From TrEMBL:
Pfam families, alphabetized: BPD_transp_1 (PF00528)
Compartments where located: Cell membrane
Transmembrane spans: 9-32, 72-96, 108-128, 140-162, 183-205, 241-262
Name this protein carries in UniProt: Carbohydrate ABC transporter permease
GO biological process, one term: transmembrane transport
Any one of the GO CC terms: plasma membrane
Family affiliation: Belongs to the binding-protein-dependent transport system permease family.
Protein source organism: Candidatus Avipropionibacterium avicola
Tree of life domain: Bacteria
Domain named ABC transmembrane type-1: residues: 73-262
Topological relation to the membrane, as annotated: Multi-pass membrane protein
């Protein structure tokens, strides 16, 4: 092995070890703390529990306050599926139109899309708008908020990917008599599958893990999401760290599974359109 290749191998191995440690150490601490009794968990020691209480802690978490965690999983799943579906459909159509058609409005639209990435969300004006529409503290209003906050990122990804699709496909479909909707849904949309997987996984994790949005825009016990259930095990007088970390472990599993299974598709979708723009 040449010195250059040996150096690359060492750098790659060290990077892999560091990346693995950065991921496994926090996850291991969460798992061990969730497996301890309340007094042991309060010590915050990175050590094995004297008695494994993981199953007991998980059962107690799930049954707390009339199964509020299960209700939260249903609410979070509804919010995530609805928001991501809206993001995919709207951003795919917007990205296709922005890439394929040039008009005097393109500059303004591109400015607004970039502003959506740069300008932080305004909580008070958003609440005012939701109250004016009569959808504050409703799941529909929260779906609109999550969809709006994620659109800019999704539009940029779809627009970059559409640039890699030959225009000849559009022209051939038009010659065959396809209208705008048929052209998009039967010809273009199936070709967007790689970037669609990326958008679905990334935005699903973002929405599922969102804490601030539901806290401000979806208050109430009936509307609780999984991230807000963390409040159940913390208070001014009692901190149930073993239950808190058991809840964190339950919340972490769904996004982790998604990333493990769709890792390659995420990378492919993020890098598509990077060369040809």
């Amino acid at each position: 092995m040449s010195p250059h290749r040996a150096k690359e191998f060492v750098v790659g191995l060290v990077s892999l070890i560091v990346a693995t440690a950065v991921f496994l150490v926090p996850f291991g601490f969460i798992f061990l703390t969730a497996s301890k009794s309340a007094p042991e968990a309060a010590d915050f020691a990175f050590s094995l529990p004297t008695q494994w209480k993981l199953l007991d802690n998980v059962v107690e978490v799930l049954t707390t306050r009339d199964f509020v965690v299960l209700r939260a999983f249903i609410n979070s799943t509804t919010l995530t599926v609805s928001s991501v579906t809206a993001m995919v459909l709207i951003s795919a159509m917007a990205g296709y139109v922005l890439q394929r058609r040039s008009s005097r409005w393109n500059g303004l639209i591109n400015f607004l899309v970039m502003a959506g990435l740069i300008v932080p969300p305004a909580v008070v004006p958003t609440i005012w708008v939701l109250q004016g529409l009569g959808i504050f503290k409703t799941m529909f209003g929260m779906i609109l908020v999550e969809t709006t906050f994620g659109l800019s990122f999704c539009i940029l990804l779809f627009r970059a990917f559409v640039s890699t699709i030959p225009r000849e496909l559009d022209e051939a479909a038009i010659v065959d008599g396809a209208g705008p909707l048929r052209l998009f849904f039967t010809v273009i949309l199936p070709l967007l599958r790689p970037v669609m997987v990326t958008v679905i996984v990334v935005q699903a994790v973002n929405v599922f893990n969102d804490f601030v949005g539901p806290l401000y825009f979806l208050p109430g016990d009936e509307n609780v999401t999984v991230q807000l259930t963390l409040y159940n095990f913390q208070s001014m007088t009692l901190n149930q760290w073993n239950l808190l970390f058991a809840d964190i472990l339950l919340i972490t599993i769904p996004p982790l599974v998604m990333f493990i299974f769709f890792n390659r598709q995420i990378v492919a979708g993020m890098t598509s359109g990077a060369v040809k723009g």
